[in-house]
Design a protein that fits this description.
about 350 residues; alpha/beta; six-stranded mixed beta sheet
């Protein structure tokens, strides 16, 4: 197709723009294939319409898997094309793929609203918990997520983080979803508590951090101080033992030795070793008390205590429970699409 237009006298820039290609890619296609760069049969087939139709989805799949699902950048896509040998047919420069990647992101965002509306119409009613938080990068970003499925309800930038702003954002995020908010979880900021308690009259639960903090704040400082003091006592006892042994060695190395009965070095060293053993025991006990105090907090942070085991996210960022159907199946696309759209 490109060769026919170029043979007809059309400029390279015009042909590249009409085909949605970088001019450098078109120029590379026009160059003779170097010996060993690619099989001659494959190079000839890729230049056909069928070959181009096969090549385009392949490059698009590389962008989708590497940049959107894998979280890597465009340069990794370029490296993949170079190492795979596809750079013989497709430009592998950063600029050539920047526009394609931007178009792919826009397409994902565009389909998000369509998928949300289509899936929401047939969605069975569900009672959900809304986990709320705020981030700053650099603007205020309101984040809400359904914890069981991992579905991102909203992630928009906002002018402020007041209660009215949160209420408006949550109300807009739940439009089209057949759900009832029965609980809200987050920190104890008034702006996060008020929408859930007033707008939806739902139960408000503090996030895990605040519960752990209330449990540990009364004892953590005191127990940490006891551990530090016990460790200092151990160091001091070790210094006493070393000093007693050094004194005995210095006495024994004197020539000639002083007259009279020698000092009771053995008794002194034994006493110092006994003090050291007591200090080490006290240090171990202080560490054990600190560990016992931490255990109730750390046990509450384990996923098996907080969420059902099937609700934990898998390694590929897909969630076995789908918010649309509540069925145990991999459903990364609604979360991904909504995340991009938000």
């Amino acid at each position: 197709m490109a060769n026919a237009r170029l043979t007809a006298g059309q400029p390279q820039r015009q042909v590249a723009a009409e085909l949605g290609l970088a001019r450098s890619t078109l120029q590379e296609w026009r160059k003779p294939v170097a010996q060993g760069a690619a099989p001659v049969v494959l190079a000839a087939w890729v230049e056909t319409l069928e070959g181009v139709q096969w090549l385009h989805p392949l490059v698009l799949a590389a962008h989708f898997c590497i940049t959107l699902q894998g979280g890597a950048g465009i340069r990794v896509v370029c490296q993949f094309l170079e190492l795979s040998g596809l750079s013989a047919f497709v430009g592998a420069s950063y600029g050539a793929h920047q526009g394609l990647n931007a178009a792919l992101e826009e397409a994902v965002v565009a389909i998000a609203s369509e998928q949300r509306a289509a899936l929401g119409q047939h969605m069975a009613h569900r009672q959900i918990t809304v986990c709320e938080d705020e981030t700053f990068h650099p603007q205020v970003c309101l984040v809400a997520r359904e914890p069981v499925s991992g579905f991102v309800l909203l992630k928009p930038y906002a002018a402020n983080r007041q209660a009215a702003t949160w209420t408006q954002a949550l109300r807009a995020a739940l439009v089209g979803l057949n759900v009832t908010v029965i609980q809200g979880t987050g920190d104890e900021a008034t702006a996060l508590c008020r929408p859930v308690e007033v707008e939806w009259a739902a139960h408000r639960s503090p996030d895990l951090f605040h519960g752990q903090y209330e449990v540990s704040k009364a004892t953590s400082l005191s127990l940490a101080r006891q551990v530090r003091q016990a460790a200092a006592t151990v160091v001091a006892a070790q210094a006493v033992v070393a000093a007693q042994r050094a004194t005995r060695q210095a006495y024994e190395e004197q020539s000639p030795r002083p007259r009279g009965r020698p000092p009771a070095f053995t008794t002194r060293i034994d006493a110092a070793l006994s003090d050291l053993a007591q200090a080490e025991t006290a240090h171990i006990q202080a560490q054990a008390r600190q560990g016992e105090a931490r255990e109730p907090c750390s046990s509450r942070s384990r996923p098996s205590r907080c969420l059902p085991p099937w609700s934990a996210p898998s390694s590929n960022n897909s969630f076995p429970l789908c918010i649309w159907s509540a069925s145990p199946r991999a459903a990364p696309m609604p979360s991904l699409v909504t995340d991009c759209a938000s």
